[in-house]
Design a protein that fits this description.
about 200 residues, mainly alpha, 9 helices, about 50% helix, transcription regulation, AraC family transcriptional regulator, transcription, HTH_AraC, DNA-binding transcription factor activity
């Protein structure tokens, strides 16, 4: 009687499974990784929401799922009003909301300090002191930095030439944008845009 055929058994392997491949990060992302980590560390003590956002973007970048058009960490930081500002000669909450909302909605328009003071029902000198007590910088500096930040967002998310972006953010011309951008960001708008903008058909001029 013929013996039944036996199915050969596979040798049992005691080797651990191969490690998962490391996430691929393109060389141009190296600077973004450093920036996100640095921004998260800087924000840990005073702005947990910003720190968390930077870490979320870093995780998304490393696992290849990052898709947001703008990295908060590479934008010019915005000044935040102190919660105790009103107790130290600062603006009342309703005054801050009114003034800051007006600034953000009218960045392309002239924003003289006396106009902002009128929104808060204060004299120009009183308003300037109170705004600085609440925000930590003068109204003029705050407006300029908001314009530069808005220009950064447009540089990353649109194909507009820098001359149009400058005008749309309330600056006289591209040279004006370049001067302010150097002052607050540390490099020219054209160089910054080429560094951080995803490959696209940009029309810088």
């Amino acid at each position: 009687m013929q013996a039944p055929l036996q199915t050969p058994t596979r040798p049992v392997s005691f080797l651990p499974p191969p490690p998962a491949p490391l996430p691929h990060v393109a060389p141009w992302d190296d600077r973004r990784i450093v920036t996100l980590v640095s921004a998260a560390q800087a924000a840990l003590d005073h702005d947990l929401e910003r720190a968390r956002g930077c870490l979320d973007q870093l995780a998304a970048l490393l696992d290849g799922t990052e898709k947001p058009p703008v990295d908060e960490a590479i934008l010019l930081p915005t000044a935040r009003a102190t919660e105790t500002g009103a107790n130290k000669g600062g603006l009342a909450p309703w005054q801050l909301r009114c003034v800051m909302g007006h600034i953000q909605a009218n960045l392309a328009q002239p924003l003289p300090v006396d106009q902002l003071a009128a929104l808060a029902n204060l004299s120009t000198n009183h308003f300037t002191r109170a705004f600085r007590a609440s925000v930590g910088e003068t109204p003029h500096t705050y407006v300029v930095k908001r314009r530069v930040r808005q220009a950064q967002i447009l540089m990353l998310t649109t194909d507009q030439p820098l001359s149009e972006i400058a005008y749309g953010c309330g600056m006289a011309d591209q040279a004006h944008l370049t001067r302010l951008f150097r002052q607050f960001v540390g490099e020219t708008p054209l160089r910054w845009r080429r560094t951080w903008r995803r490959p696209t058909h940009s029309r810088d001029n």
